[in-house]
Amino acid sequence: MSKQIWPTLTMGTCYYPEHWDESLWLSDLRRMKEAGISVIRIGEFAWNKFEPREGEFTFDFFDRFLDLCRQEGMQVIFGTPTATPPAWLTEKYPEVLNAFIDGTLMRHGLRKHHNYTSPKYLELCARVVTQIARHLGRHPAIVGWQIDNELNCECNTFYAESDSVAFRVFLREKYGTLEELNRSWGTVFWNQDYTGWDQVYVPRPTANGSQNPHMELDYIRFVSHSARRFCAMQAEILRQHIGEGVYITTNGLFGHLDNHAMTRESLDVYTYDSYPNFAFPLDQAFNHSALNDRSWSRSLIETRSVCPHFGIMEQQSGSNGWHSRMEGPMPRPGQLTLWSIQSIAHGADFVSYFRWRTCNFSTEMYWHGILNYDNRDNRRLQEVRNVGRLMKQLAPVAGADSKAAFALVRDYDNQWDGEIDMWHRRIQQASEQAVFEASQYTHTPYDMLYLQPETTLGDLTRYPVLIYPHAEILTPERSDLLKAYVEQGGTLIIGCRTGQKDPDGHCVMQPMPGLLAGITGTQVEDFTFCSPAEPPVTAIWNGETLDTPVFNDILTATPGAKVLARYASSFYAGEAALVENPVGKGRVLHLGSAFSVSNLRQLLAYTGVLSPWQDIIHLPEGLELTAREKDGRTFLFLLNYRSEAQSFTLLKSAASLIHGDLPAGQHTLPAYGFEVIEI
Amino acid sequence: MSKQIWPTLTMGTCYYPEHWDESLWLSDLRRMKEAGISVIRIGEFAWNKFEPREGEFTFDFFDRFLDLCRQEGMQVIFGTPTATPPAWLTEKYPEVLNAFIDGTLMRHGLRKHHNYTSPKYLELCARVVTQIARHLGRHPAIVGWQIDNELNCECNTFYAESDSVAFRVFLREKYGTLEELNRSWGTVFWNQDYTGWDQVYVPRPTANGSQNPHMELDYIRFVSHSARRFCAMQAEILRQHIGEGVYITTNGLFGHLDNHAMTRESLDVYTYDSYPNFAFPLDQAFNHSALNDRSWSRSLIETRSVCPHFGIMEQQSGSNGWHSRMEGPMPRPGQLTLWSIQSIAHGADFVSYFRWRTCNFSTEMYWHGILNYDNRDNRRLQEVRNVGRLMKQLAPVAGADSKAAFALVRDYDNQWDGEIDMWHRRIQQASEQAVFEASQYTHTPYDMLYLQPETTLGDLTRYPVLIYPHAEILTPERSDLLKAYVEQGGTLIIGCRTGQKDPDGHCVMQPMPGLLAGITGTQVEDFTFCSPAEPPVTAIWNGETLDTPVFNDILTATPGAKVLARYASSFYAGEAALVENPVGKGRVLHLGSAFSVSNLRQLLAYTGVLSPWQDIIHLPEGLELTAREKDGRTFLFLLNYRSEAQSFTLLKSAASLIHGDLPAGQHTLPAYGFEVIEI
Amino acid sequence: MSKQIWPTLTMGTCYYPEHWDESLWLSDLRRMKEAGISVIRIGEFAWNKFEPREGEFTFDFFDRFLDLCRQEGMQVIFGTPTATPPAWLTEKYPEVLNAFIDGTLMRHGLRKHHNYTSPKYLELCARVVTQIARHLGRHPAIVGWQIDNELNCECNTFYAESDSVAFRVFLREKYGTLEELNRSWGTVFWNQDYTGWDQVYVPRPTANGSQNPHMELDYIRFVSHSARRFCAMQAEILRQHIGEGVYITTNGLFGHLDNHAMTRESLDVYTYDSYPNFAFPLDQAFNHSALNDRSWSRSLIETRSVCPHFGIMEQQSGSNGWHSRMEGPMPRPGQLTLWSIQSIAHGADFVSYFRWRTCNFSTEMYWHGILNYDNRDNRRLQEVRNVGRLMKQLAPVAGADSKAAFALVRDYDNQWDGEIDMWHRRIQQASEQAVFEASQYTHTPYDMLYLQPETTLGDLTRYPVLIYPHAEILTPERSDLLKAYVEQGGTLIIGCRTGQKDPDGHCVMQPMPGLLAGITGTQVEDFTFCSPAEPPVTAIWNGETLDTPVFNDILTATPGAKVLARYASSFYAGEAALVENPVGKGRVLHLGSAFSVSNLRQLLAYTGVLSPWQDIIHLPEGLELTAREKDGRTFLFLLNYRSEAQSFTLLKSAASLIHGDLPAGQHTLPAYGFEVIEI
pLDDT tens digits, residue range B233-271? Predict the structure, then answer.
């Protein structure tokens, strides 16, 4: 997972030789090279170029192109074409199509209209991937392979008939018996018991669209399982044919998919597709006060949790847009560069632009690439050239680890439960957004830490503080790990509704915080959503106001635990809102509510991890700060997403990787500017 | 219909023995009894506990539980389980399922996914109900039976194939010939004539979703007919097997169902499910200025019109919520009690809480009961205990009739026409809301009076004033009844668009008010929706402004009738807006518009029924007042729905059933407080 | 196309003899005649009156009615009944039904639920039209025929199975080979290539609803083709049977239909259905500041482009409304007259009211006609009588041409591309709305000019100025025509994104403005939607602010071209925003953005066509002015849509066709008033 694929910062682009007259190929490759691009990603979607008719394979087209790449010294990442089955395939075998919940099939004409479970699709995908891998696996121009394209993009629900068949297999493996499935799904409620496996289906239409929540949770697990299996099937084929040192990846960060497990099982490296310009839509409400494009840092943090040294397979280079949706302004001068540095600041060693030249037809004809339709040199190509130069100056950063002050703890059980359970979702979304914003405004970098079967205590002890906002679902394994973390000296911060559920999604018949009660020193006596009929409820902590938004657990502290804050209003005024409990060398802080930017500032300060670089640099909230470190060297990235200049103050002199020595004192970042300093 | 089921105020709860480990049963029953609960409702939804496989019946489970109830002295209302067909049933016989209008079947996984018309479902329901009734019909613990659960809940439209078959039967019975159906449905318009019965269907998809309105009206009548027949079929079976004095009921107040006829035909008593906390949603816009939970009184008034001495089968005891929708705050301390008293204040003699303990799994896991998942005693159980004590103090109220100052007249033809006809709906909804609010703010209690085939003049003459806001559909029978009412001394108030239609929903070819023209002394010359391009139109009545909102009929008065108010603006300024016509010993007041709180204050004052208790008590608008009377004793209920205290003033001393003697002068009700005084 | 059907201004109404008791026929016809109505439109929708059962034809009903018309001297326009297939037909042949995109059929119960492509429907329509035409074609009462009713109303998308079959035929004719279709549709993108014609379908459900844009464009062309073929098939039958001088028309102005080609191919005259009261809805947001009912002038201008001397087949006479949607206030006194004159002011010589008497049943029972259900004389009939009198006073106007100061250029390629391409749509809608509003406020009448294969230079040179706002799609033919127009002395004004695409909807691989670059003297260097994150961007023109809204092309001027205005902000501040290029005797003005009312005022003034009547009359923005001219006489129509009086000033005396001589000076139009003066 921490394999280092790119020894130096590397620049790429996505190219579609099949979209252009072959007479353009040579000049395109040479102009790329001239701009500093050394890798191109090709081939994904191009099934018909290999198998134009069922069972008839041909390789001429890409052989021609790849030989040209070899000649021109261009490295290639080759994508398997399974995201876009041909028309001849879906017309002959409609069972390979994905369906809407009512059974209506998703037809040819877009992409990702297939399912992952029909034996016929798996067979045909295996065949075409085998053919391609056998033929191209050892082509010298190819340095890596991308499996499919953006797994679970367009659609991450699957309701084909083959999905019900595969779901039953998945459930049989998980539960063994229908009795156990009935227990797990609580089917005694509303008489839902199953007496035959054939009665079990993926979600289908119901009177008001609602589904059994435990079935839904298993269904998302099943979707993730199917996608992972689909990816693993391809990886296995590829590994039989590709050369030593050639890596396997896939791109994206999509829902209903355990990206961590998929990466562990099948990939050498994980890549993300970063489109921060989605923050400036014309066709949706635009919020000037939000973090806008700076919010993409949150996805980069999540990507980093999957793969510390990741790449950007698709980095935005022009306006995003389909003919049917998404109207984006053109990136302002400097934004292309800024967003590229944003990726590097969060851990990317590879940045590949989508796409070399804007496609002049079909759905994505407004998804602008570096070049416009007219193929003239333009300001965006100038910026790409400049990023190439900057990458050389930033060379020491390659392979550096990100440096975080705390970690936000997640697990897929709770992420997915938060998706299907709106009581869970409301607090989960509020608190995770607050953690990101508080981190950004206070320049307190954080990592995301997914608790997985493979997670070790060592993965936790890298952080002095863990925030696990609303682990409604707890397991003994995760609870034990957290207990060990606290005992060895860690600080664990949790919020309301922790420990409410078991992994089936059942509410446990014991007081919250359930399995964590042994270390929190608390018990929840009563609880309520903050009523819309009341003013916001807050608490008092050492004479100061503490936000307690969204939901309130009314806590009691067990002996030895200390009530830090008490609610100040509603019917539970005076009851405990925040309790601290010492455990071993560490402690647990239990907050009765969701998190906010404000209460996180207080909690991060109280736990001593707020603003770790404040002795070195002072920044306004409007600048982002990230840190990467390697071999004892630490690099701070400062990024200005605003259209006006912003200043920062160095408390002592430092070295900029771009501008050389910076004296102590005030410095200015221009609009969309950035700085990288070594401290 | 006025059978008295509960000789004293009675407290119950809903219990699901199948949801819990049997080891909990005994303590649950004993804790209930200790809290004052003497009746539980069980069994609805539990089909599989009786027929786990087709045709295999077993009774062990409920025998065990019911014997325990008998042992512990707990009375039981037993629900037939037909609201949740088993998976084995719907998988084998998909023809029993309800469908969406496009034919997509509503699948297993929720409840009420069946139709009422497929012969197979009717056969299987009859069989399981017969089996249960035969086995349990004379069990000594069972005091009543509930048929199904919330008929027409989740969905009150039915589009299965069997519905079209049954609709044709219904229409043949109604019309005899296609010629008559074509006439009634106005099929000559747009060439819709039917030339064979097989061409007739329940509504199906059309180009823009609109349907023939006369067909739609018959369709709602058909849905009501189907649900009533389904209920009657079960009642007939039950009556063959249950003991003397054991009552039959069902719960709910749902659409597309003539609850009055159903109760008359099949039930001994009607029960309502009261969830006032729906007024405080997080997942919808919340309106601080509305009547909020106090609005549930309107449903209680409607319930009272179905059954004067009704029960509450499900009284809210905790937050409402599904995992997939509805986020409710926990009831504030006092609200559980307040809402219970609200039910009693409007006529309930039985209050049964939903549910004993919150289910810790499946769709309704956030539909909190009295107890939380953790089963500890809590503040809500304390409130239930207190309600038990209060019921003893309120004992004299049991069986008392509600005491209203006027009645709002309704009939199902107009209620349903108002649903499918948006011109009708807009005035109907505005005026009915205004009647409720005016009654609440002025402390002028009212009843709803449904005009039905069985309604007699005596049912009308109980009220000095009747408001029949917008009887677009008039029938000779209803017109004659109203004429007789007026002639004997009653005051009838009507609004715009009265008499526009016949029972087919055709507009009559005569001036409004059509069949009532003989007693109104008016004719409508012209009419218009109040234009959004003009300021609100009002009228002048004795120098004061009279609201004339939404729609304006321009009236002319016949000789003998008196124009009370004239419009003050728009192109009909100076024309008659309100006309009074003396008829016999009574009179008719014809208002040309919809009703508002303001114009109702004026009309109620003019007709002498405003604020009937104002010589005894003065209250702010924020308190609700209801009255019940029995054996010459009158009880006034005062209810405070607000989170702050409110005061009232007694003009003379009175006796509180709770606090003993209350002297004349000012008294205070605390937040969520109430008072019951005898005058 | 410029055939003159009505030698004098003519008044009609729509009548449905089948909706009424025959005893009403005679009095209805006589009352119509008395009111000045000389023509009625009947028969559309009445299929069952001719063919009550498959293949059984009868003519008694309409023979009776038409003979009465002849007797009473009433002229008749007879509609073919193909918009409403009978129930017996659609039940037996469901393949004739239209379908939703997911294949769900649109069922009996509304209208226009059929498709245009199933052989069975075409066969049955041809048969019934042949039967009717053969029987009634030479009936002396019939002066004209209406084909179907409002083609493409209710629904202008067609997804029946027969549509896919017909679409393939259409595409084979257009492309010949699949290779060419694949090229045109850009199917190499996302591997969409077709290898068999059977793989091609009309749009079907896709993962997120998006479709291949080039397919969509061809699909709209196909829908238009199908509707035109359906119309032509009926016209051909009618022409075989109808008498000399009897005209053929159809009514409406609906989407996905080349009304110009249809009229040219099949019709003698085109009629429009004008319902300005749609501007005052209760069931939608109402915007007081918009042009409201005055906006209907825009549709009349478009109608005029189809057919200079057109009729109004359905002119609003009462509130619009269905039971299921649309709540309209009753037209205020004067509005019926005003809207009738609005039609005449824009070129109508025939005004026929919808409908004589409001239907007292079915879907349109609130679509009020002249008379109400009660059949009494009313104020609306009085207004109709008065319009009859006014038409006599306006007799000189009959057959006069409209007189415009400039033309808005359109073509169907761009209209339809603007529908499927939201980047195109946003600028197209903004600019076309701005042209209409600027014209209205400045009293600068304009025509719409559709560039069609038949369009000649002479059609263009009638206008000194053409505005072709955003011709994204250019063709050599249209570009050449515009070049010739400019060279001979015309002024062409274009906006951003001109020349971006070819007729397939592909973006061309050359700089904008593409095919027009030869005459614009410009090249587009960069472009962007105006960012929602920036304040509005404007330009400076001679020291004044010039709006440059929505989208900005950054222009460069070639030698000889003159930069008139430069952007004032954003990253392209100082770059050219408006360029003027002299070409031959004319010039091209290229604006880099969309149009606004403000920048159009400046451009119209600069090009010398603003407010052409300002030397004769001064009017406030709130009055509309139109001009018609004939035989050297010019008539100005002044219309007041407001509920208050407005004044205008004559700079010299003039003659009113209504009020005789008007001296120079100020005159007042009452609310909803109008004036027609000859100058």
Answer: 999 999 999 999 999 999 999 999 999 999 999 999 999
Query: Rounded to an integer, what distance in angstroms lies between the CA atom of residue A510 and that of residue A514?
Result: 6
Of C394, C447, C311, residue with least CA distance to C637: C394
Neighbours of B30 (CB within 10 A): 12
Beta strands in A68-166 (DSSP E): 75-79, 142-146
Closest C-alpha among B42, B41, B129 to residue B85:
B129
Check: CB of residue A286 under 8 Å from CB of residue A328.
Answer: no
Residue A178 CA neighbour count, 13 Å, CB half: 12
Buried b (16+ CB within 10 A) or exposed e, B120-151: ebbebbeebbbbbbebbbebebbbbbbbbbbb
CA A328 to chain CA mean position, Å: 22
The answer to whether the Cβ–Cβ distance between A87 and C206 falls below 8 Å is: no
> Closest partner residue to B104 among A205, A212, A530, by Cβ?
A205
A211 to A202, A392, B106, B115, B607: CA distances (angstroms): 10, 54, 11, 19, 53
* DSSP letter (8 states) at residue C337: H
pLDDT tens by residue, A455-500: 999 999 999 999 999 999 999 999 999 999 999 999 999 999 999 9
Phi (first) and psi of residue C284, to 5 degrees: -135, 170
Cα–Cα distance, C521 to C346 (Å, whole number): 37
Among B167, B189, B428, the strongest candidate for a mutation testing the C interface, having the largest count of C CBs within 10 A, is: B189
Contact state of B362 with A190 under an 8 Å Cβ cutoff = yes
Q: Considering CB atoms only, which of C103, C210, C420 is closest to A110?
A: C210
Report the alpha-carbon distance of residue B21 to residue B498 in Å, rounded: 59
Residue in C527, C496, C499 with CA at minimum distance from that of residue C512: C499
Write out pLDDT tens, residues C540-589.
999 999 999 999 999 999 999 999 999 999 999 999 999 999 999 999 99
Distance of alpha carbon B448 from alpha carbon C515, whole angstroms: 74
Instruction: Give dist(CA A192, CA B181) in Å, integer.
Output: 42
At residue C313, φ and ψ (nearest 5 deg) are -75, -35
pLDDT of residue B337: 98
**Residue A440 CB-density burial (10 A; 0-12 exposed, 13-18 middle, 19+ buried):** buried
**Measured between CA atoms, how close is C156 to chain B, in angstroms?**
10
Question: Is the pLDDT score of C467 beyond 90?
Answer: yes
Query: Residue A325 and residue C534: Cβ atoms within 8 Å?
Result: no
Type and span of the H or E element at C392: helix C379-393
This prediction has a pTM of: 0.97
DSSP assigned state of C622 = T
Contact B505, B214 (CB under 8 A): yes
Which value does ipTM take for this structure? 0.96
Shortest CA distance to A119 belongs to which of A84, A154, A169, A155?
A169
CA distance A182 to B48: 12
Q: What is the pLDDT of residue A486?
A: 98
8 Å CB contact of A362 and C212: yes
Collapse the DSSP code of B488 into the 3-class scheme (helix H, G, I; strand E, B; otherwise coil) and give the result: coil
Contact between chains at B422 and C323 (C-beta distance less than 8 A): yes
Reduce the DSSP state of residue A489 to 3 states and report it. coil
pLDDT digits (tens, 9 = 90+) for C611-639: 999 999 999 999 999 999 999 999 999 99
Which two structure tokens, joined as six digits, stand for B97? 């399922």
Tell the residue number behind the tokens 């999540």, with chain if given.
Answer: A302
Q: How many residues does chain B have?
A: 679
B602 Cα distance to chain centroid: 27
Q: What is the pLDDT of residue B4?
A: 78
| Interior/surface letters C609-641, b for 16+ CB within 10 angstroms, e for the rest | bbbbbeebbebeebbbbbbbbeeeeebbbbbbb
